[in-house]
Design goal:
Bound molecules: adenosine-5'-triphosphate
Keywords: ATP-binding, Nucleotide-binding
Strand content: 25-35%
Radius of gyration: 18 Å
Mean pLDDT: 92
Number of helices: 8
Number of strands: 10
Low-confidence stretches: none
Protein name: ABC transporter ATP-binding protein
Domain ABC transporter: 7-234
Shape: globular
Structural class: alpha/beta
Strand order of the largest sheet: 6-7-8-3-9-10
Helix content: 25-40%
Order of helices and strands: EEEHEEEHHHEHEHEEHH
Pfam family, one: ABC_tran
InterPro entries: AAA+_ATPase (IPR003593), ABC_transporter-like_ATP-bd (IPR003439), ABC_transporter-like_CS (IPR017871), P-loop_NTPase (IPR027417)
CATH class: Alpha Beta
CATH architecture: 3-Layer(aba) Sandwich
Distance between the termini: 26 Å
Largest sheet: 6 strands, mixed
CATH topology: Rossmann fold
Length: 241
């Protein structure tokens, strides 16, 4: 792949107490690609992405972002992160939440106002800007969290199960926005256990029991295992482990 990787995970292992949750992960991710981390619940996907944003440290190995080792405060502005659990202030309106997150990223005034309008349009919540978050549905909260991650136009977006609880129609339109961002050169890392979503990624990393068992385009992974579906390919790689 052309150019320097935007993310480089090097020999990363992680244990929580006696439980080893990541085993010698090596992975490079490049600008402008949508990289999917696919694996069942508990496989270690969240632990990988939390390390990339400096919320977790590896027990062994290194995580590099933009040619700098994590954790680094300087990198906070370059990456946008959407966690699995929504980190929103329930008693505030969507607008107040976005103003708060925007201020954290150094956005203010007219620029902040413009960005809030733009991201709320992307997640189709423009009409609900002044509503209190406590009155949002689960799917609306997910979309608002996504809006917050998009606010400062980061070069790298790290999204932990971004479309859980979002209906298929909106999921499709959110993926269209992901492709728009990719076209602008943004790299996206998306964790998922949904197979049809995995198919939409440029490349996939399959994770099972803390190990990266395969990396490639959806097409490559299917071809190498003579599988018709990603699910089948996953089972073949998992079985061969
Ligand atoms: N802070 C922690 N302390 C102890 N164990 C943890 C901690 N965080 C994660 N784990 C364990 O690490 C393993 C991997 O968890 P992780 O959340 O990374 O999986 P995941 O693939 O993201 O799963 P899911 O799709 O359910 O979010 C699990 O067994 C989990 O219980």
């Amino acid at each position: 792949m052309a150019g320097d990787p935007i993310v480089s995970i090097r020999n990363v292992s992680k244990s929580f107490g006696k439980q080893q949750v990541l085993q010698n992960i090596n992975l490079d991710i490049y600008p402008g690609e949508i990289f999917g981390l696919l694996g069942p619940s508990g496989a270690g996907k969240t632990t990988v992405v939390r390390q990339l944003v400096g919320l977790e440290l590896p027990t062994e190995g290194e995580n590099w972002l933009f040619n700098e080792e994590m954790p680094s405060l300087k990198l906070v502005e370059k990456a946008g992160y959407m966690a699995q659990a929504d980190a929103l202030y329930q008693e505030l309106s969507a607008r107040d939440n976005l103003e708060f997150f925007g201020a954290l990223y150094g956005l203010k005034g007219k620029r902040l106002k413009e960005r809030i309008e733009a991201v709320m349009e992307i997640v189709q919540l423009s009409g609900d800007l002044n509503k209190l978050v406590t009155n949002y549905s689960g799917g609306m909260k997910r979309r608002l969290s996504l809006a917050a991650a998009l606010l400062h136009e980061p070069e790298l977006l790290i999204l932990d199960e971004p479309t859980v609880g979002i209906d298929p129609v909106l999921r499709k339109s959110i993926w269209e926005r992901f492709y728009d961002l990719k076209a602008q050169g943004t790299a996206l890392i998306v964790t998922t256990h949904v197979m049809d979503e995995a198919e939409k990624c440029d490349r996939l990393g399959m994770i099972r029991n803390g190990r990266l068992i395969a990396v490639g385009t959806p097409q490559e992974l299917k071809e190498h295992t003579s599988s018709d579906t990603i699910e089948q390919a996953f089972l073949v790689y998992g079985g061969a482990e």
